[in-house]
């Protein structure tokens, strides 16, 4: 059987545990945008996302000695991020809180203005706003599964490890979430198509 390649981030966390503080700075640099993107897509609030990132890296810093490489280091970071986001929703009851979406997520920078005509850019931003609004209407676990699968590209097994369930349960979450999203978005796309034809 082919030996699995060593996780370079696992080596970094080991260096940090052994007293090399600069290793933590490198971890922060590698994972800051990942944490911010997940938190923003989940909470839809940039200030909240920044707060989540601070909490996540504080938890990583404080609990590094308890880290056990049973899964990839990135899975551990996703799991901490997911837990902080879910706790924030439960504690502050602000699932509906949002700010206008400006289409400038880190993951969307490759398709920033200049790649589209003004009318295409306007339509694209409108569509992304509607999709992000629809995402906020999902129950927390379904929303998290969608963010991790659709935006982060994780496998069912990785999502299961992060959420703490089976891959079959992840499949069920995603099916229910996609069904709700289709139902929510159908009137928008139907109205847009009718407007174009009219």
Distance between the termini: 61 Å
What is the correct CATH architecture of the largest domain? Orthogonal Bundle
Classified in CATH, the superfamily of the largest domain is RNA polymerase sigma factor, region 2, helix turn helix motif
Radius of gyration: 19 Å
Shape: globular
CATH topology of the largest domain: Rna Polymerase Sigma Factor, Chain: A
Mean pLDDT: 81
What percentage of amino acids are in beta strands? under 5%
Number of strands: 0
Give helix % range: over 70%
Compute the number of structural domains: 2
Q: DSSP helix count?
A: 8
CATH class of the largest domain: Mainly Alpha
Summarize the main sheet.
none
Point out poorly predicted stretches.
Answer: 94-115, 194-198
What structural class is derived from the secondary structure elements? mainly alpha
């Amino acid at each position: 059987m082919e030996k699995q390649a060593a996780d370079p981030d696992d080596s970094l966390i080991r260096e940090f545990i052994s007293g090399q503080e600069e290793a933590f700075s490198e971890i922060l640099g590698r994972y800051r945008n990942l944490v911010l993107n997940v938190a923003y897509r989940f909470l839809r609030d940039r200030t909240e996302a920044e707060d989540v990132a601070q909490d996540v890296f504080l938890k990583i810093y404080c609990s590094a000695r308890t880290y056990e490489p049973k899964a990839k280091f990135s899975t551990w970071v996703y799991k901490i991020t997911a837990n902080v986001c879910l706790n924030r929703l439960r504690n502050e009851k602000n699932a509906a809180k949002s700010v206008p979406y400006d289409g400038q997520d880190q993951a969307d920078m490759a398709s920033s203005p200049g790649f589209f005509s003004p009318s295409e850019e306007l339509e694209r931003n409108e569509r992304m706003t509607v999709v992000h609004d629809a995402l906020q209407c999902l129950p927390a676990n379904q929303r998290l599964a969608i963010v991790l699968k659709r935006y982060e590209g994780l496998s069912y097994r990785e999502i299961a490890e992060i959420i703490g369930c089976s891959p079959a349960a992840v499949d069920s979450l995603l099916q229910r979430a996609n069904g709700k999203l289709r139902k929510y978005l159908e009137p928008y796309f139907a109205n847009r198509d009718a407007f174009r034809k009219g």
